[in-house]
Structures are given as C-alpha cells and as structure tokens.
Amino acid sequence: MSQNKRNGSAPRTKAGKGNGLTYADTGVDIEAGDEVVDRIKGHMRKTYGPRVLGKHGAFAGMFRLDYNEKLFKRNYRDPVLVSCTDGVGSKVKLACDLGIYNTVGQDVVAMNVNDLIVQGAEPLFFLDYIGVHKVDPPVIADIVEGVADGCHLSGAALLGGETAELPDLYAPGEFDLAGFAVGVCELSRIVDGSRAEVGDVILGLASVGVHSNGYSLVRAVIDKAKLDVDRVYPDLHAEQTLGQVLLTPTRIYAKSIVKAIRKYKVKQVISAMCHVTGGGLPGNVPRVLNDEIDAKIDRKSWDVPPVFDFIQKHGNVDDDEMLRVFNMGIGYLVVVRPHFADSVSKLLKKQGETVVKLGKIVKGSGKLQLK
C-alpha cells in the first residue's frame, strides 16, 4: 500500500540468490513498497485532525464521526454520509511524459471532493489508489505529496491508500491514479436541485484551465499539430511551457463552498450546484435540474481562458465539441435565490474564487439553454 503496509512484507531473498523463485523475480519489490510507506508518513500526517484515530501503517484508517460538542465545533443532528470515487484519467500520461508527478495528486482529490460538495457535503477523508509498473519510492512520494496537498486544500484527512506494483499491467514508467472520498451533510440540508426554481441566479466559479477532463483529445491535438510540450507558446499568455500549463492542478472548491453553505444556517439560499467535469456544461448542468426548469446561460458572460482557444485552434475542434468535452473556464456552478446572489458572490470572492453571473433558472423541462 502507499499508506499502509502491504501483504508479504517479511524480508525477501534477493533475486538470483538460491534456486527458488522470488517475488522480486516477477518484478514486485516489497522493500521499495516499505520505503514508500516511510517516505509519505509526513505528507499524510499534515492532513490529520483530531478526528483521525489509529497509527500510520495500520491495515485500515479510522475516522471519528460521532464526536462530542466540547471537542469539535459542530455536530450533525441527522448525518448522511456521502461518497464518490474518480480518477485522473489520461492526464497521468502527460505527467509521465514530462516527469512531473506532484500535481496529479491534487487532481485526484479535486475530482472527488468537487463532486462530493455538490450535494452539500463536507469532505471528511480521502483514500488513493496508485497502480504502477514498478515502485519508485521518490515518484510515489511526489504523487502522494500532491494528494496530501489536495486534502489540505479541501479540509479532508488522507486516511489511507494503496500502491499496487503490477508489471504485467502497466508499461515501464507508467502509472494510474484514482481515489475515494467520504463526506457528511445534514439530511435536511442536502443540495440536490429539487428546490431550484424559476428566477434563481446561476453563478459560475472560474476554472484554472483544463482541470482533469478531455486529455485524450488534448494529447491527440498535441500529436496531430506536432506541438512541443517543453515550449513556451505566446498565445497561451503564460510564462510556463505548454506541458506545465496543461498539468495545472484542478481547482478545489470545497472550502469555499462549505463556508458558503454554513454561512446561511437557517435559510437554504443555495438550491443547486454542479461540478463541470467530462461532458462540459451541456453534459453536467442538466444533472442537477428538476423536470420543471431549465438553466439559461449566456455564453458571453465569461471569458474563455487562452488554453482552450489554443487547443481549438491547433486541433481544428468545432465549438460544440469544445463545449461538450471541456469546462471552457467554468469549473463549478452555484444556483442561488435571487435576493442572495450578491452576498453569496461576495462571500465566494472573499474565499479567493473568481465568480461570474452566468444566467438564470427559467421554466422548462430539465435542460440547458446555452446561447
């Protein structure tokens, strides 16, 4: 495991010693796995709060859910556990090509906790899965450092994880990265879009780039246009190389959204939320609408970041495909009661978010009107 001891951690016979076949002969290095456990201990501990129990290296992590008022600031009267799982996808291929491993860890946390908070949940803890051809302790430590950074940004504890050394499944130098998050929300304050109504205002929170969706198309564009990921392109309006721009970690909205939800303890001013991932606005916004409303969004209400214009130009990708694949600069949506739109926007901006008014909820049948 990346955080806990793996099975079979007893001292092994060195490859080539004696006549017996060893685990090391198959390409699995138990000692390297044990080294990883020691290397990542500090990264994990920085995500711990008083709710985390047990010791590092145990077979499972423990998290105290039903806690007393004296020790913690809040209790849930009728708590509902919320969970989700997701991966980084083919963005890890780009990380492998560039040898940059500490950013995709934040991506895997973001892809999970940004989904979690859509339901109004507070992230509690996170676990990761890393599948590799061969355990390289410094590389795994870099990945887990990014995971720990993401957990810190979201307020979640990195409770455990797994590193699987699978030389028969992964090519040399390749890896896969996925995760699992658990959160909690009050039953009476679940946000599921059922309370959204005509007149509600749609606020958009800016993304920081491509995030973690559409990288199969991104990589195809790079290959087709023969782009150099190590080059700085002026039309990206960044001092970073193309590869660095594309590896910018997915923004984590958790702390901002949780703070906005807690601000209004009596009135439920947020009626729906949406994490804009694979499928873009057209594929995700209808998921949070009830059957009596549409989301009417003005495409001119926000500026599309240069990275998307760059991808579209070099790949000759049409507008509809861009909107269907990428977030196009809007990573998260918050639907709020009209009288609270300004105050919610101000609060989110104070938390560091870039907020734009995208449109309104209108009468309809659960569709997105993007014009």
Topology of helices and strands:
Layout (H helix, E strand, L loop, with lengths): L29 H10 L1 H5 L6 E2 L8 E2 L15 E9 L3 H8 L5 H13 L5 E11 L4 H18 L2 E9 L9 E12 L14 E6 L8 H10 L17 H5 L7 H10 L6 E6 L4 H5 L8 E5 L8 H10 L3 H7 L4 E7 L4 H10 L4 E9 L4 E3 L1
Parallel strand pairs: 4-5, 9-12
Antiparallel strand pairs: 1-2, 3-6, 4-6, 7-10, 7-11, 8-10, 9-11
Helix pairs in contact: 1-5, 4-5
Could you walk me through the main structural features you see in this protein, from its secondary elements to its overall organization?
The protein has 371 residues and is of the alpha+beta class. The protein folds into 2 domains: 24-189, PurM-like, N-terminal domain (60s Ribosomal Protein L30, Chain: A, 2-Layer Sandwich), CATH 3.30.1330.10; 201-370, PurM-like C-terminal domain (Phosphoribosyl-aminoimidazole Synthetase, Chain A, domain 2, Alpha-Beta Complex). It is 30% helix and 22% strand. It has helices spanning 30-39, 41-45, 91-98, 104-116, 137-154, 215-224, 242-246, 254-263, 280-284, 306-315, 319-325, 341-350; strands spanning 52-53, 62-63, 79-87, 122-132, 157-165, 175-186, 201-206, 270-275, 293-297, 330-336, 355-363, 368-370. Strands 8-10-7-11-9-12 form a 6-stranded mixed β-sheet. It has a 4-stranded mixed β-sheet with strand order 3-6-4-5. α1 (30-39) packs parallel to α5 (137-154). It is globular. The protein starts with 29 loop residues before the first helix and ends with a strand. The relative contact order is 0.15. Mean pLDDT is 87; it is low at 1-17.
